[in-house]
Specification:
Elements (H helix, E strand, L loop, with lengths): L1 H31 L9 H22 L1 H7 L3 H4 L2 H32 L15 H13 L1 H16 L16 H23 L27 H8 L13 H7 L3 E2 L11 E7 L8 H4 L7 H9 L1 E7 L5 H10 L22 H6 L4 E6 L8 H7 L4 E3 L18 H12 L6 E6 L25 H18 L8 E7 L21 E4 L8 E8 L3 H8 L6 E2 L14 E5 L2 E6 L2 E5 L4 E8 L2 E5 L7 H22 L15
Parallel strand pairs: 2-6, 2-7, 3-9, 4-5, 4-6
Antiparallel strand pairs: 1-10, 3-8, 7-8, 11-12, 12-13, 13-14, 14-15
Length: about 650
């Protein structure tokens, strides 16, 4: 038996080794994202690390269950040298993958604002763009790559090796085999318990981390392999029963109908989605001298500007469904990479097409990037134009696609050839990492304190040039322009790192000949509101399904919903709440530019109670309608009566 116990001692040593390295990658994650967790003191960081050990142990157990199984067999198998070599690779390869995922997220988290999930490995993410951009990522984050190489070397070097002469091999008696097999069953059982996160009724999940950390700090408790594992293969959404069917439709009804007896106003619609244009970069929206978007600021002053605009997600792949179809990102996977792309949805383009509009979407990136082309087809927009359709590949930046200045000029020229009325949308890309600028524009724009600001300046210049050219076209005066960002990016000021500020974006409506569409809208607006707002403005005659509301409807419930790290969030006026699907986790109030935490275990303000009720209704409608393919009019959401 002594030799069998020696093998189990080696097993424990090896699992302890990966635990040490998982902790090291957590430390690296914290250091590389220190500015996002600067509100925590040293003891609080240690406490988050301690809570994170539960998730690390669960991840290690889940990733190494096969290794534990093969390491728990009787010594008649374990003592063989070839078998030990097999065990070595069975241990090293999966665990290096765990470390790699953690290291990738050390930098990726800064862009996403949440831990990686399984859809990162979807072909829409790891396609041609990833291969093209990989050298740039390695160049920009060489220190992370070098550190991963060092960790990999040390991990392999420190692997506890089997010593064949450590003990005299026991005879392979039936008694020994039976006892060793029973011990092996116990070891495997304990591993399963660790993988579940303990003996509780249900295994731990991403949401469990909300018990240990505030929403903005949950990522410090979780680890990225855990969130990938927990979202891998997930298909169905839960069926919440917060309300009866009657209560649900009264609290939040996604079916909107703004048309009246007036005829439809068939103005052209141009929708411009600006890559990574966070609200923080605008001097106009922040009442400060320094602005990185002077051209955009001038447009804001000509149109109706939503000063409290928010994105429904933190990724470009989440933006299109929110903006085009009013479908916010309220699940672990983006809608585009989920199983729900087989359901019938509608969009601005599909509904306007029914009214005789020509509809088109333009993006200077590779055809297929982030599944944009597939979503455009799914949403009923008639034409998609990507890199393959662009006439001059000399304008390619060598990474994502066509530089913004030539592409927006091309977009304007394309519009001039369209038959009116038309709906045309463009998604810019130059302000995306690696923030490459044409040689003739380098050094022309303020750099500020963030690495992306120079590219924001270039994209803003390109936007200004587009409007200069568009103003000379015959279709300009009969067009309503809608501008918004897809999501925020890096932040300098503390507020823009908060649960509220990291979703704050500009949303602008501008019609050159409509003097009524001018001024400031200070109510809470979201990307999902753009779809119904455009249809309301045009006096679209029919009903449709959306999770937003028109900004012109003063009686509509206002809010901006999102989902991250297992928590649902709703921003409403100067409040932001986080909800885990069962319980209210946090409530914060914006006071003098700072978010103040409210004790959610005490008597809650009426505003918080109302906001939570609205959020529950949105979640219930969202889950039921996606599960039952009820995203078009005539298919109402149904729920069980409690």
């Amino acid at each position: 038996m002594r030799d069998y116990l020696y093998h189990q001692y080696l097993l424990a040593q090896r699992l302890f080794l990966i635990m040490i390295f998982m902790t090291l990658t957590r430390v690296v994650f914290y250091i590389m994202n220190f500015h996002l967790f600067s509100s925590l003191n040293f003891s609080e960081v240690l406490l988050h690390f301690m809570y994170g050990m539960r998730f690390d142990l669960a991840t290690i157990a889940l990733a190494n269950i096969s290794y534990v199984l093969f390491s728990s067999l009787p010594t008649v198998v374990l003592n063989r040298p070839w078998y030990q070599l097999f065990l070595k690779y069975l241990f090293i390869v999966p665990n290096i993958i765990l470390l790699a995922i953690n290291m990738v997220d050390c930098k990726f988290y800064e862009f996403e604002g949440k831990r990686l999930t399984a859809d990162f490995f979807n072909k829409e993410w790891l396609g041609n763009d990833f291969v093209t951009l990989l050298p740039e990522f390695i160049k920009d984050y060489w220190y992370a790559v070098l550190l991963f190489a060092v960790l990999t070397f040390l991990f392999i070097y420190l692997y506890p090796k089997y010593s064949q002469n450590k003990f005299q091999n026991s005879p392979s008696k039936l008694y020994n085999i039976v006892v060793q097999s029973l011990l092996g069953v116990i070891i495997i059982g304990l591993t399963i318990v660790l993988g579940r996160g303990g003996f509780q009724l249900k295994p731990i999940s991403i949401i469990t981390a909300a018990r240990y950390a505030a929403p903005e700090n949950i990522a410090l408790v979780l680890n990225s392999p855990f969130t990938v594992i927990k979202t891998f293969g997930r298909q169905s959404l839960p069926n919440p029963e917060y309300f009866t069917e009657e209560e649900l439709s009264k609290t939040f009804n996604p079916e909107q109908h703004y048309g009246d007896s007036l005829p439809m106003n068939k103005k052209n619609v141009v929708l411009i989605i600006l890559e990574s244009f966070g609200k923080e970069y605008s001097g106009f929206l922040n009442e400060k001298r320094t602005t990185y978007t002077p051209k955009f600021d001038s447009i804001m002053q000509l149109g109706l500007t939503c000063t409290q605009g928010y994105s429904n997600g933190k990724r470009s792949i989440e933006a299109l469904p929110s903006i085009m179809s009013g479908i916010p990102s309220l699940m672990d996977n983006a809608f585009i990479t989920s199983s729900y792309t087989s359901i019938h949805i509608e969009s601005i383009g599909s509904l306007l097409k029914k009214q005789g509009y020509y509809t088109a979407f333009y993006h200077g990136g590779k055809n297929g990037t982030m599944g944009f082309d597939n979503f455009i087809k799914l949403s009923g927009i008639e034409n998609y134009f990507g890199l393959d359709e662009y006439p001059n590949l000399a304008d390619n930046d060598g990474n994502w696609g066509i530089f913004d200045e030539p592409y927006l000029t091309y977009f304007c020229n394309e519009i001039s050839q369209m038959q009116e009325p038309f709906f045309a949308s463009v998604f810019t890309l130059s302000s995306h990492h690696p923030y490459q600028l044409p040689l003739s524009h380098q050094g022309k724009y303020p750099k500020g304190n963030l690495v992306n600001l120079e590219s924001i300046g270039y994209a803003d210049f390109s936007l200004g040039k587009f409007f200069q050219l568009a103003a000379k076209q015959p279709w300009f005066s009969n067009t309503v322009f809608v501008l918004c960002a897809d999501h925020t990016a890096q932040a300098d000021e503390e507020f823009y790192k908060s649960t509220m500020g990291k979703f704050a974006i500009p949303i602008v409506f501008y019609a050159p000949t409509d003097t009524a569409l001018v001024g400031i809208n200070n109510t809470t607006c979201q990307q999902a509101d753009i779809f119904p707002s455009i249809l309301d403005y045009l006096n679209y005659p029919g009903p449709f399904i959306t999770f937003g509301h028109s900004i012109f409807d003063t009686n509509a419930p206002r809010g901006a919903v999102s989902y991250s790290n297992g928590l649902y969030q709703l921003i409403h006026d100067n409040w932001v709440i986080n909800f885990n699907g069962k319980h209210l986790i946090s409530a914060e109030q914006l006071v003098d530019g700072k978010l103040i935490n409210i004790d959610v275990t005490a008597q809650l303000p009426e505003k918080v109670t109302q906001t939570e009720k609205l959020l529950k209704a949105i979640i219930q409608q969202f889950n039921i309608r996606l599960e039952k393919n009820q995203m078009t009019v005539g298919k109402p959401a149904t729920t069980k009566t409690k």
